[in-house]
Amino acid sequence: MSDSEPSKPLKRKACPSCGVKLTGFEKQVSGPELSSIPEIQILLISNAEPVPKVRDELLSRQSGTKSRLAEITRSLKALESAIVRLKTERKVLELDLKSYKVILHPVRSVPADVWLYIFEMATISHFDPSAGVSLRVSKWHAERTLAPWSISQVCSSWRAVASLSGLWSYVALDLGTNLGTKQRRKKTKSALESSLFFLNRQLQKSGTRPLTLALTMPTNSQQSPFSRALLLSVTAHSERWRDVFITYNADDIGDDSDVLSSIRGALSSLCTLHFSSLESGGIISAFEFAPKLKELSLACDPSSLDDICLPWTQILDFHYRAYHNSQTSLELLNKMPNLVSCTFDPISPTDDLLFHGTHLQLVSLTSFTCCNNHGVHQVLENIFAPSLKNFELKDNRQKLTGYLDALQGFFQRSHCALGSFTFSATKSKSVDIISLLRILPTSLTKLSLQLSPYASSAYSGDVILKALHCHPTHPTGTSISTILPLLQDLDICSSQITLNVLDTFGSRQSAADPDVLPLKSVTLSGCSEVKGHELISDPRAIALQASGLHLQVSFLEPRPPTNSSDCEWL
Description:
Blueprint: H1 38-44, H2 52-103, H3 112-122, H4 147-152, H5 156-163, E1 170-174, H6 182-205, E2 211-217, H7 225-235, E3 241-248, E4 272-277, E5 295-299, E6 317-320, E7 324-325, H8 326-335, E8 341-344, E9 347-348, E10 360-361, E11 367-371, H9 376-380, E12 383-384, E13 390-396, H10 401-414, E14 420-425, H11 430-439, E15 446-450, H12 461-466, E16 489-495, H13 501-509, E17 521-527, H14 532-536, H15 539-546, E18 550-558, E19 567-569
Parallel strand pairs: 1-2, 2-3, 3-4, 4-5, 5-6, 6-8, 7-9, 8-11, 10-12, 11-13, 13-14, 14-15, 15-16, 16-17, 17-18
Antiparallel strand pairs: 18-19
Helix pairs in contact: 6-7, 10-11
């Protein structure tokens, strides 16, 4: 073939993919289209007989048309068969691909300890930040399947991990079931029967591991036979109770001689007890003998405290979450001479304080937290804690003026090497905060001030931080003592924080006095005319960060008109 000759298209006899023969698919033309022949058009619209020549032509065409139609029909059947075959093959390949993904999935290479951690997270359904501890409590409900049961039904490897873990040792029971109507009684009875079966299996699977238990207790009169059976199943393992949450939801809890009598003296593993009740009305002595009990959280009426028999002298970590007065606070502190950590929720002042003039010695107390307290000054006036390291006054909505004398006296009596102090208040003016800073122990290394973040002439972060400025020694030899010379971590939320605070931080970083330590971390937040990025990008801030100061800023910018709710984060 010469170069000038046009190349002919390559003809394929069959499709390379499906194998269907391609011959016969080309359009075959034996002459002009039938409908375009004038003679045929005339015959189609009349009943005239075709002339012999036309008749012979039509017979010839008819034979070819039938042959071509038969060929097309055969080709279509072949194509349809190929399509079915290809679809079947595609389905098989898709199933194979799915199998590859399942077998090669990275989840198969996850170590057992990682699965165990994930499973433990799956069982967490209760976390009370105010309780003082983080406990994993698996929520038990009569009409729900526990996460460990669901996990162990997935596959044999998951079941093996679950069986070797402590997932089964977190149990919660609501025993105060109200049976109500006949239909409800029938449904509840069935649910309780199922709960009893699964509870016994769960306790069996937990082996000898310590139990974390959450109980919602009824009065004796509210107990059904099945709820009593559930309780007996749990109390039979009281020697393994380690962390216990007990809530009485009844108005009158009554004596526990019948409800929890079997656990009295059988709590050798109990370390943590969280007890809540709505009303007083009965003696609770089941927890009187628990040699390892160290952590106690109570949420009950102050009038019922004398009815709860506990090994008070053993308690090291205590949290009282009920509203009470300062007299109750002091009585509780007097019961726990070995206390290490204590948190009191709302305290009201007492008019006729019986502890007035008596200073309780809390020689082991290292952490003391008071939340939303009006009467905390009466507590501070009657205690001293020489080992105190961490002190927090949170959500104090009263003016600081009435507390300064009590705080100063407390610190002077205690002579404690306080390391961390947190103060949260919305009504304390800048001048009062400065007075507070002056009476804090010089040993303080960490300070957190959470004040009003909104613009006001009475609240100025600049004024407060200026009090922490380290002044150079005067040429005459006189010097101004630096407040909190050992301070290294500062967190302040206030209004009117400007670029001037950088001078204060710089004075402490480059202090000539060797007794003044440089700051390591500063966190600023609140409402300010200065944008956070402007402060961070200031040359002084850059220099401070280069010297080792970790500086974080998150300001609010008031939009006109300025008010306490019209601010946006920058």
